[in-house]
Amino acid sequence: MIHRIVLMICLFAWHAEIAMCQQQTPEAAQQSAAEALLPNAGSTSQASATNVEEFLRMEIVKAELDLETEKSQYGPTHPNVVRLEQQLERLNAKLLEVQNEHTARLGRLAGTHTQNTSPLAAGIESQPADRTAMEAAREAAETQYQSAEAASRQAAMEYRKAAAQQSPDAKAVAALKQKLESAVHTAFEAQMKLQQIRLQLAELNLIEVKERYERRESLAAKIVERRVADLMQGEGLNRLSSPESVLSNSVNMDAALDGNWTLRKITGTGIWSHESNLQLRTSPTEWTMIRGTHESKFNRRLNHDVEPYQIDVFRVNTPDAPPLYTGIYKVEDNTLTIAWAPSDGSAPRPVDFSGSVGTVQTWKRVKTLPTFATPQELVDYVSEINGEDSEAPSKTMEQLFEI
């Protein structure tokens, strides 16, 4: 008796489930099937998620084919066409949801099981985003949105024209109003889809920025070492801004001026006008003139508050005495030009670089070749200087390491 009761209950439940399935719309049935295939919250099976994606992609292709058929047969405003468009949007949204959930799950697993890899890097390595595909999707979504907006405006014009008749057809006006509402709804959905893709691209940009940050963080020591070497050689330095220049005067700093220089040309009379083969080494507070094996050290004082910039140098053993040499200077790329006042004091500080008084010197920056452990490090260094993404012509080895 008990077995009969249990059997009757099971049969009743089975018939009830069949009845509920029969009452579902095709769209609801497809959505239920897709949700049934979704992995549960505790599942970590990549194969399961892949199966769901494949199922949804097949359904999307089928819906797209049905939509094209209905459109060609009944036109873009037919209820069947609207229904299929909505169904296609739901399927695309579900596919995106599954992909995002799968990506997040892989990222969490990678962060749990890999101690030396951050969850961010693990997520990127597990399922790299296809930027090209996303940008193509954005362009397609923009086109779809513009088309939907144009359709809604066209529907509005048709409605206004019909409603403005002297004896408008109430049924026709109502149908056109319904068409307008449907067109506006479609345009709104297209706009939301476009915004969603834009948001995904923004998130991808953030991931890439974080990835670059983590990569640079892991190479911090090498980056700092290379930057220090470049700054010591005066590589890629721009003129300091006015506030920075005023602040730097207390330590006599000019990033563009500091480095190693060799004298290329000297005109006029006065300071070192009789010298040749001079080398100049400058640091934030010290100026060293090198003649062969002999070195003469000076202190220097800069003034960036005037144009052109002013420079004074004086011997280190008499720091409180008036400047021994007074002049102006400018740095253009790898060329340093200094116009000095006459050393005999017969004329004031120059105001230009014409060489009408005193001495004008032209110095060329000395570039030294860093030490590389491998040939690849040299290639990487040259690529870094030239800029991998730069459209400017590559510098030659002679230009890079000119003496």
Description:
With 403 residues, the chain is of the alpha+beta class. It folds into three domains: 30-221, no CATH class; 242-365, Lipocalin; 371-403, no CATH class. It is 56% helix and 15% strand. The chain has helices spanning 2-23, 26-37, 46-74, 79-113, 119-126, 131-163, 170-218, 220-232, 242-248, 375-386, 397-400; strands at 259-268, 278-282, 286-291, 294-303, 309-315, 325-332, 335-340, 359-365. It has an eight-stranded antiparallel barrel with strand order 1-2-3-4-5-6-7-8. A hairpin with a 5-residue loop joins strand 4 and strand 5. The protein is elongated. It starts with a helix and ends with a helix.
Give the percentage of residues in beta strands.
Answer: 5-15%
Give the SSE string. HHHHHHHHHEEEEEEEEHH
Overall SS class = alpha+beta
Q: In total, how many domains does the architecture comprise?
A: 3
Give the mean pLDDT: 71
Helix fraction?
Answer: 55-70%
Keywords:
Lipocalin, elongated, alpha+beta, 8-stranded antiparallel barrel, 56% helix, 403 residues
